[in-house]
Design a protein that fits this description.
17% helix; six-stranded antiparallel barrel; 21 strands; alpha+beta; Pdz3 Domain; Thrombin, subunit H; 2 domains; 319 residues
Length: 319
């Protein structure tokens, strides 16, 4: 057998599939690369100083970029795309790991946005960023999982970012703050962490995170209501699942002494099933209510306690 016979010609259908995949990725890269900046960030807290790298995505034509909060932690200055654009912090929210910065004189093209809540597992995604200092790097993969959780903290306050996107698109240090886009080059997530080989995580862009970004743009911070409960998503008992027509609620594990939850009469073991007329199925539903201008207004929580349901009036405090 001749050596050349070992190298079989690709089947027509294989070549067509490869060409279609390549066409999508290259089209996304061409549309998204002008929207993604590489960042050099100077950090200092008075005792130490250092330089770090990351990525950011343009949201508007006046130089507003979105990135990861941990990329701009303790930022005292920096540049986007070399020394072309000086960076200014607009606002950051470590509890969602999102931040807004302004790049002076930026000519970056604003990215188109999509709703990450519409993603499906297996869907093609493309990551664009600045891994290990290699600006304008593009990798592709699929949505490997949805509904993942990412623990975050700010001082003594801890929170779990829900509905995080898991992807196998290659991410490395420096990708943080970069774009995760769908096959139509629409921004659906901000790359935030590398959890392992072939396991990258991105904060989704959905209704909740858009409210966070709006608050950062207007106020420089996120207004959050504080209930004083620690809890997590938990299946409802079968009889309550049948009665309410849903399978899960938020279980109260602990309540903080003197908190709005205690004042309202909430106890460990309660299951929060609704807020007003809105069902509460997961911790993200409750967290969503605590974001924005109305986060300190009274709300009525329906809780299940044993075999009875109660309605508790609670007024969150501002944090």
């Amino acid at each position: 057998m001749a050596i050349t016979e070992l190298f079989a010609e690709p089947q027509a259908e294989d070549a067509a599939a490869l060409d279609a995949y390549s066409a999508v990725v290259t089209a996304v890269a061409e549309r998204l690369l002008p929207s993604v900046a590489s960042l050099r960030v100077r950090r200092s807290n008075g005792r130490w100083s250092e330089e770090g790298a990351g990525s950011a995505v343009a949201l508007s034509s006046d130089g507003i970029l979105v990135t990861s909060a941990h990329v701009v932690e303790a930022m005292t200055g920096g540049e986007a795309d070399g020394s072309e654009h000086q960076l200014e912090l607009v606002g950051k929210d470590p509890l969602s790991d999102l931040a807004l910065i302004r790049a002076g004189g930026s000519d970056l093209r604003p990215a188109a946005l999509a709703d990450a809540d519409q993603l499906r597992i297996g869907q093609l995604v493309v990551a664009v960023g600045n891994p290990l200092g290699y600006a304008g790097s593009v990798t592709a993969g699929v949505v490997s999982g949805l509904g993942r959780s990412l623990p975050t903290r700010q001082g003594s306050e801890r929170r779990v970012v829900e509905n995080v996107i898991q992807t196998d698109a290659a991410l490395n240090p420096g990708n943080s703050g970069g774009a995760l886009a769908d096959s139509r080059a629409r921004l659906i997530g901000i790359n935030t962490a590398v959890a392992g080989a072939g396991l990258g995580l991105a904060v989704p862009l959905n209704a909740t995170t858009r409210r966070i970004l709006d608050s950062l743009h207007r106020l420089g911070r996120v207004q959050r209501g504080y209930l004083g409960v620690a809890g997590g998503t938990q299946p409802l008992p079968p009889e309550w699942a049948r009665t309410l027509g849903r399978q899960a609620a938020v279980a109260v594990m602990d309540v903080v002494a003197g908190s709005p939850a205690v004042i309202a009469g909430m106890r460990p073991g309660d299951l929060i099933v609704a807020a007003g007329d809105e069902p509460i199925r997961r911790t993200a539903d409750l967290q969503d209510l605590m974001i924005g201008d109305s986060s300190d207004r009274p709300i009525e929580l329906m809780v299940v306690r044993g075999d009875v349901s109660l309605r508790l009036a609670v007024t969150p405090s501002q944090r």
